[in-house]
Amino acid sequence: MQHPEVAFRPCGHCRQFQYDEKDGTPVESRDGKGYMPRLGKVPCEAAIGCKKGTWWAPTYRALTPAEESMVTLYYSSKATGGACLNVDEMSNDVLALLFGHLERLVQAKNSNGIASAVTSGIMAIKGL
Predict the structure, then answer these.
(1) Residue-by-residue DSSP string for 39-84
(2) Each residue of 5-53: pLDDT tens digit?
């Protein structure tokens, strides 16, 4: 992913709550109950800008929870050499196919600088 700090941030949630622009996490409220309400303009409307574009016309879209889980599982399995996968996941042909697609997308992004390779690939994979 080109911009992981905003990849998992839904525009509607960003418009409602403050986010730490360095790591992309929501800022907790001072009383520790929930998140800090948004004060002022959202980053896409302010001078800081947003890597995803604007909330009314995003350049990139946020990953769905299912897509986020798939990408997390992919990177976890790469980091552990597959040790994090259970027996069913290790023998799942569809999962192997999806991991192959993600691997090719990551390689293409790293070699060509394609900004939205993973997101575009996941959208293509949904057509299976």
Answers:
(1) -S--TTTSTT--TTEETTEESS-PPPHHHHHHHHHHHHHHHHTTTT
(2) 676 778 888 889 998 878 778 899 999 889 999 888 888 887 777 777 7
